[in-house]
Amino acid sequence: MTVVGPFGLSVRDKALETDVQAGLAAVEAGLLEATKSEVPFITEAAQHLVRAGGKRFRPLLVMLASRFGDPYAPGIVPSAVVVELTHLATLYHDDVMDEADVRRGVDSANARWGNSVAVLTGDFLFARASHILADLGPEAVRIQAEAFERLVTGQILETAGPRDGRDPVEHYLDVIAGKTGSLIAVSGRFGALMAGADESVVDILTQYGERLGTAFQLADDVLDIASDSHESGKTPGTDLREGIPTLPVLRLREMAARDGSPDDLELVRLLDGDLTDDALHADVLARLRVHPALERARRDTIRYAQEARATLAPLPECFAKSALEELCDAVVHRAG
């Protein structure tokens, strides 16, 4: 048993491991090629996050999904480059919106070069992804366009907040289904589609990616509070400090509104205040780490990961299916 990809995913077949590693190496080369420009400064800015690394979760899913057809089909690596470029582009834009200083353990592009450069670099990556996508055919273009619409819709919904009377948790789950689930679903879909898998298999892997994407984001929500060293390179409690209402906080608000516990109401009041003070921020973070709301968010994460795993049931037994199942387990492990 060897380890490949994000979270120390175990691959139990040497041939599969070799092929996945080769595919991911080809994706990495494709990312560097796609982010080159005749203008050296654009190359530097566009490759900033590529060279910072990352889990390459989406390309890995493309590679594993392709095993249910022809894993050597010519569209597989380019489609993996497309989804990762799109993801990277959204990170440039997200960091501007969130006024983030750090991404993947390095200075964010907006902190280093300013908001305008960060936004334009994200646009540059979208353009390069579209250029590659055009060679994959109209169906691939349509799939990516629909996913991108969902991604942007999720971002707008997050910015606008829930409408009056809407359950904030349901609203948030819709947000992350768009912002995160949509592109991870496309990763599973592209891998199977480009490999020529049966339509039923393409549908299964699309649904799997959608559910796994939600679990993946919920695990990040838990990690933002529970971890001492955040996998994404963000400082623990970053979302708290920025006032981003992640699932543990929403579960806390739900419990406070329902039960009216003085301690919970006080914690909500602190969350609604200014958390730029380091001591206050540390106190709120410590209290959330032992609060039942965090455990409730963990259970939500596990539920989505289990749903993703159950979606795979109709697929034939093989090493690739086992690896996809282990991805579900790895996401749950991240959430503790």
Descriptive account of the structure:
The protein has 336 residues and is mostly helical. It has 16 helices and four strands. The strands form two sheets. Strands 1-2 form a two-stranded antiparallel sheet. Strand 1 (2-4) and strand 2 (9-11) form a beta hairpin. Helix 1 crosses helix 4 and helix 12 crosses helix 15 (292-311). It is globular. The relative contact order is 0.12. The model has no long low-confidence stretch (mean pLDDT 90).
- The number of E-state strands comes to 4
Pick out the low-confidence regions: none
Element order: H for helix, E for strand: EEHHHHHEEHHHHHHHHHHH
Distance between the termini: 23 Å
* Beta-strand percent range: under 5%
Question: Mind summarizing the main beta sheet?
Answer: 2 strands, antiparallel
* Overall SS class: mainly alpha
Question: Averaging pLDDT over every residue, what do you get?
Answer: 90
Number of helical elements: 16
The general outline is globular
The strand line-up of the biggest sheet is 1-2
- Radius of gyration from CA coordinates: 20 Å
Assign a percent range to the helix content: over 70%
